[in-house]
């Protein structure tokens, strides 16, 4: 799994030997640097804007905080009555962590069954699961709304938690592929020792797939953390919902720096996760993206 | 055999799932549940009332408040209705009532009201009470109402007068009109000229109104309305309506009362009003709490009537909205629920806690009207207009109050750039042409709502 | 399908315990897809032929045949929503082109490539809500973008109030946000191209341009195709960006209204049956795109 996209082997050698290559490299650097600036400017601007003392300052000096940087904007949004940020933050964590971890475990179990066990209708059931990947969310959200309403779940985090616990098909698909590389002999020997399949999974398979599983958990976490439509639909006050609402509530009251601060806060967890795990993330994106 | 077992499990499961989509049930324990939406400070006041009531009667009132704004409240209420787990008491507006009525969610509480001797239901404003009476049955009790008159910023106007720029034939908005002995009501012409006088450089602006909420005043005072009497036909092409819209348009475009189009987006008018840069802007009753905190060197605001049309004898109008409390059809304790609502709306505690101490609502009872007006602690200047606007017949309901949904009405506002124009966008129509174009489309959408309503009513029977 | 099961495969009879365990292990996933995907999909299909209002159960609503579908196709708002949605899809080829070029640059083995890769990927992981709100304020009439133009001597404008520029803003934002992802896939794709291909071609005297169009482009075609199809699938479901890009007080939302926004609006008005029909029209497009993907992938494997 490692080194799938190693970077040591340039496939594009420029024509004219060393001098041409050096000129080409310089041009490439220039373009890449300009590109990086374009990529980062809006984000840096958001950070700068979040530290502006007021909207008026933002008008005068739009790019960086003029005069005093106001870190208190961040304190304000955590105590502000318009936006119950701590509550939303907690809710987002609740939706994005335990549910995702539980769902990933279940997905691992399912993938184990599909990858290593034999049972009737395996292929049919697997195709049934795969079919889910085709279904666009808007096509099912209205009946789901009705379903959750019937359960009394609208406005609670349950619509974002419960479905995840049943596992994630894309993850099952990916882990099953990964399990193909795991030798069956260890399972057989465990069976000879009289282990049940559940124990085999927990004690042998799980440790083996942990790297793959962890990367998938991280990707899923980032997706869920940023999710908007389901939360909006079922009225769950997660961070993205609360921040968006805050923007429309106070946009008319000169509070753009605070809206930007709230936006920054909503990005911090994913950015931290990304920076810490960027290698894993980038590799598993590639693996689960194109080469399924 | 395993095959059979598997298919059996699947079938059983599908049956359960199908049932879940079709509908389910409910339970009881002597307490009553109140479901509202409120900001943090409002919620605190509501809880205070609930606690006081429990202290008095022993009945436990569970307050369930949506902390966000109303949209999420209605979403949640709909989901409660959908799952047949309605709270005992909940906010209900006349606009939403029909929908819940057709879906059998509201209880006729007339008998409980007449049986209640503790509180005076008749003390509530009659026209508000009537909104909840359908075919002689009472489906709710009015609680709080809000109106949307005009406001002025005295800081600007005083300086304009001092500078000698104020039109000499126009009284300042806080003066009484000698002819009527009441606060002056501007005509469109006077209002435009006053606003134009207050437009100075890029510091001060006359006015600039939020069309979605302010246009009603212009339409109604011109003698027009959005719908015909039985609320089945869109009537936006009448000469009166054309006149109202045209004048509203001209106020913003040709009378010098509003800075150019470009300035509109640079910083919107509401923002300028808050900054003390705008002379006239609508003030809703719900704004008062927030406006009190503004910089008083720049803004010292008071309430005034909306302008009336230039026709002699025209009346001024604005809209009023209100919320009341309904009891669920499924409530197990309707008697207690009604008693609590009456306590919450008509008692002395209600005035003390909700109106005076926390200023979250206007008094809904006639007997408290004068008390409120005379109380020097309650802002703003001219606040009696909030009450008299309604009692003297200057308010109307929003047109969507009378229809099943607001699609037809939203359509009107979703397309107004067709005559306003916009950046890189020349106006396509004059206001007259716009009305000709928009009316059939609005009608189509209204017909659709009427059809849905008819179907729901048919199902109910 | 069952390859890689090695020794387990050799046993003729299915072990009872193994089978039971396997069913237990796949049961949650199966239940999950049925409850949360297939049943809702069927319900919305059924609902799309009724006047379902949402409060009543779907089976209590009356059947209206194809009325909802006819109504949708007749509604100019829907047509506009489709056009708006298609407009935002012009970001797909733009993003594909840019990311392929970027990938080529990042594939030269330059020092610091890793850093660039991370930098370009940052917008991908950022939440769409925060990004859209940032973009909204970035493009505000008095915002930094106009200030920047001003310094370059170009007159700015209220971009988001303009019926075309507002859509362009969405396109730019989506390209900006998605660039890192597609670049990453292209890098992986490029690495799969054997160097001998290029060497052989160069021996035949092919120039850089020729190498690019004759070898690189065809060989990364699977990636291009994947990005194109997934672009259409996600593009057809565009919602958040369009819903949040305009400032709250905006006069006219019509010019960024997408199909899903239209769907949501109809749901809000209480026309759930009608909205279900919109959902199914959308689903058909997505099914078609996915089907196309499977078909072409299948063909390639043969």
Structure description:
The complex is a heterotrimer of chains A (292), B (461) and C (302). Chain A is built from 14 helices and no strands. Chain A is mainly α and 292 residues long. Chain A has two domains: 56 residues; 205 residues, MetI-like (MetI-like fold, Orthogonal Bundle), CATH 1.10.3720. With 461 residues, chain B is an alpha/beta fold. Chain B folds into two domains: 194 residues, Periplasmic binding protein-like II (D-Maltodextrin-Binding Protein, domain 2, 3-Layer(aba) Sandwich), CATH 3.40.190; 228 residues, Periplasmic binding protein-like II (D-Maltodextrin-Binding Protein, domain 2). Helix content of chain B is 46%, strand content 12%. Chain B is globular, with a radius of gyration of 25 Å. Chains in contact: A-B, A-C, B-C. At the A-C interface, α1, α5, α6, α7 and α9 of A face α1, α2, α5, α6 and α7 of C.
Highlighted features:
heterotrimer, A: 292 residues, mainly alpha, MetI-like fold, 2 domains, 14 helices, disordered N terminus, B: 461 residues, alpha/beta, D-Maltodextrin-Binding Protein, domain 2, six-stranded mixed β-sheet, three-stranded antiparallel β-sheet
Provide a compact summary of the structure.
With about 290 residues, chain A is mostly helical. Chain A has helices at about 15-50, 55-60, 70-80, 85-95, 100-115, 120-130, 140-150, 160-165, 170-180, 185-190, 195-225, 230-235, 240-250, 255-290. The chains are: A mainly alpha (about 290), B alpha/beta (about 450), C mainly alpha (about 300).
Number of strands of chain A: 0
Number of helices of chain A: 14
Q: What sequence of helices (H) and strands (E) makes up the elements of chain A? A: HHHHHHHHHHHHHH
DSSP summary: helix tally of chain B = 20
| Shape, principal axes of CA atoms of chain B | globular
Silhouette of chain A: globular
Percent strand of chain A equals under 5%
Tell me which oligomeric state these chains represent: heterotrimer
Distance between the termini of chain B: 48 Å
SS-based structural class of chain A? mainly alpha
Q: Please give the domain count of chain A.
A: 2
Let me know the number of strands of chain B: 13
The CATH C-level class name of the largest domain in chain A = Mainly Alpha
> Fraction of residues of chain A in helices?
over 70%
Major β-sheet profile of chain A: none
Cα end-to-end separation of chain A:
13 Å
Rg calc of chain A: 24 Å
- Spans of at least 5 consecutive residues with low confidence of chain B: 15-20, 22-27
Largest interface, C-beta within 8 A: A-C, 119 and 118 residues
* Spans of at least 5 consecutive residues with low confidence of chain A: 1-16
């Amino acid at each position: 799994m490692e080194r799938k996209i190693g970077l040591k082997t340039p496939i594009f050698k420029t024509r004219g030997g060393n001098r041409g290559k050096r000129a080409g490299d310089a041009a490439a650097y220039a373009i890449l640097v300009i590109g990086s600036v374009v990529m980062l400017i809006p984000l840096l601007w958001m950070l700068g804007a979040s530290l502006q003392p007021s909207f008026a300052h933002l008008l005068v000096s739009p790019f960086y905080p003029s005069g005093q940087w106001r870190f208190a904007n961040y304190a304000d949004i955590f105590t502000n009555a318009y936006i119950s940020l701590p509550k939303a933050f907690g809710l987002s964590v609740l939706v994005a962590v335990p549910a995702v971890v539980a769902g990933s475990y279940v997905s691992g179990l399912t993938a184990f069954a599909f990858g290593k066990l034999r049972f009737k209708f395996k292929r049919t059931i697997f195709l049934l699961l795969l079919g889910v990947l085709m279904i666009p969310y808007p096509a099912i959200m209205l009946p789901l709304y009705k379903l959750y309403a019937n359960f009394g779940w609208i406005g609670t985090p349950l619509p974002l938690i419960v479905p995840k616990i049943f596992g994630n098909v894309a993850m099952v698909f990916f882990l099953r592929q990964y399990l193909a590389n795991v030798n069956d002999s260890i399972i057989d020997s465990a069976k000879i020792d009289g282990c049940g399949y559940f124990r085999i999974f927990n004690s042998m398979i799980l440790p083996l797939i942990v790297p793959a599983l962890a990367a998938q958990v991280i990707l899923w976490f980032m997706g869920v953390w940023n999710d908007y439509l389901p939360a909006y639909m079922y009225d769950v006050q997660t961070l993205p919902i609360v921040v968006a609402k805050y923007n429309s509530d106070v946009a008319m009251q000169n509070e753009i720096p605070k809206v930007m601060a709230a936006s920054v806060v909503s990005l911090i967890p994913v950015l931290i996760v990304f920076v810490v795990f960027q290698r894993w993330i980038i590799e598993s994106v590639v693996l689960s993206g194109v080469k399924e | 055999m395993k095959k059979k077992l598997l298919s059996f499990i699947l079938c059983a499961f599908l049956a359960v799932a199908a049932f879940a989509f079709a509908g389910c049930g409910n339970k009881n324990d002597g307490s009553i549940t109140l479901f509202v939406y409120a900001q943090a400070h409002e919620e605190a006041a509501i809880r205070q009332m609930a606690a006081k009531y429990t202290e008095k009667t022993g009945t436990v009132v569970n307050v369930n408040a949506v902390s966000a704004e109303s949209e999420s409240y209605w979403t949640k209420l709909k989901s409660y209705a959908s799952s047949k787990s309605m709270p005992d008491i909940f906010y209900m507006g006349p606009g939403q009532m029909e929908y819940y009525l057709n879906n059998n969610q509201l209880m006729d509480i007339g008998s409980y009201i007449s049986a209640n001797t503790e509180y005076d239901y008749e003390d509530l404003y009659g026209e508000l009470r009537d909104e909840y009476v359908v075919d002689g049955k009472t489906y709710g009790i009015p609680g709080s109402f809000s109106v949307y008159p005009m406001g002025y910023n005295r800081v600007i106007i005083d300086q304009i007068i001092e500078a000698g720029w104020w039109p000499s034939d126009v009284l300042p908005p806080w003066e009484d009109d000698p002819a009527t002995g009441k606060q002056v009501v501007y005509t469109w012409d006077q209002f435009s000229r006053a606003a134009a006088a207050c437009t100075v450089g890029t510091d001060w602006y006359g006015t600039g109104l939020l069309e979605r909420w302010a246009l009603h005043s212009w339409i109604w005072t011109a003698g027009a309305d959005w719908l015909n009497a039985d609320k089945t036909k869109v009537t936006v092409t009448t000469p009166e309506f054309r006149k109202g819209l045209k004048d509203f348009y001209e106020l913003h475009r040709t009378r010098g009362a509003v800075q150019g189009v470009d300035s509109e987006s640079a910083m919107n008018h509401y923002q300028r009003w808050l900054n003390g840069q705008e002379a006239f802007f609508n003030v809703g009753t719900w704004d008062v709490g927030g406006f009190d905190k503004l910089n008083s060197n720049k803004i010292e605001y008071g309430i005034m009537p909306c302008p009336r049309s230039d026709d002699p004898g025209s009346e001024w109008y604005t809209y009023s909205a209100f919320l009341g409390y309904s009891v669920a059809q499924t409530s197990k304790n309707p008697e207690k629920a009604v008693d609590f609502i009456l306590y919450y709306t008509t008692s002395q505690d209600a005035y003390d806690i909700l109106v005076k101490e926390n200023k979250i609502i206007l008094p809904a009872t006639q007997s408290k009207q004068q008390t409120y007006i005379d109380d020097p602690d309650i802002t703003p200047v001219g606040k009696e207009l909030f009450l008299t606007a309604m009692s003297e017949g200057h308010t109307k309901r929003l047109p969507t109050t009378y229809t099943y949904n607001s699609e037809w009405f939203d359509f009107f506002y979703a397309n107004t750039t067709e005559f306003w124009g916009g950046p890189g966008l020349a106006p396509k129509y004059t206001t007259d042409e716009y009305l000709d174009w928009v009316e059939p489309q609005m009608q189509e959408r209204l017909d659709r709502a009427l059809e849905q309503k008819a179907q729901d009513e048919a199902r109910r029977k | 399908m069952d390859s890689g099961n090695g020794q387990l495969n050799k046993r003729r009879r299915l072990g009872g315990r193994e089978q039971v365990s396997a069913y237990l292990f796949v049961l949650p996933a199966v239940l999950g897809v049925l409850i949360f995907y297939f049943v809702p999909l069927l319900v919305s299909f059924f609902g799309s032929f009724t006047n379902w209002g949402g409060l009543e159960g779907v089976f209590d609503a009356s059947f209206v045949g194809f009325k909802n579908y006819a109504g949708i196709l007749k509604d100019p708002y829907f047509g506009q929503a489709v056009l708006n949605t298609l407009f935002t899809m012009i970001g797909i080829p733009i993003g594909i082109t840019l990311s392929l070029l970027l990938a080529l640059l990042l594939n030269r083995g330059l020092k610091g490539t890793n850093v660039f890769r991370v930098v370009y990927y940052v917008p991908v992981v950022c939440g769409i809500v925060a990004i859209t709100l940032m973009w909204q304020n970035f493009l505000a009439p008095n915002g930094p973008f106009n200030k920047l133009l001003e310094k370059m001597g170009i007159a700015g404008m209220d971009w988001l109030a303009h019926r075309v520029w507002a859509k362009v803003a969405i396109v730019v934002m989506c390209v900006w946000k998605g660039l890192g992802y597609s670049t990453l896939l292209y890098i992986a794709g490029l690495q799969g191209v054997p160097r001998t291909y290029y060497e052989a071609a160069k021996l035949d005297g092919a120039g850089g341009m020729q190498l690019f169009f004759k070898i690189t482009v065809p060989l990364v075609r699977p990636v291009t195709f994947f990005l194109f199809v997934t672009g259409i699938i996600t593009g057809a479901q565009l919602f958040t960006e369009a819903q949040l890009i305009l400032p709250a007080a905006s006069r006219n939302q019509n010019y960024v209204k997408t199909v899903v926004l239209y769907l949501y609006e109809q749901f809000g008005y209480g026309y759930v049956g009608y909205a279900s029909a919109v959902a199914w029209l959308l689903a058909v497009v997505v099914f078609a795109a996915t089907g196309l993907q499977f078909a072409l992938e299948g063909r390639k494997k043969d």
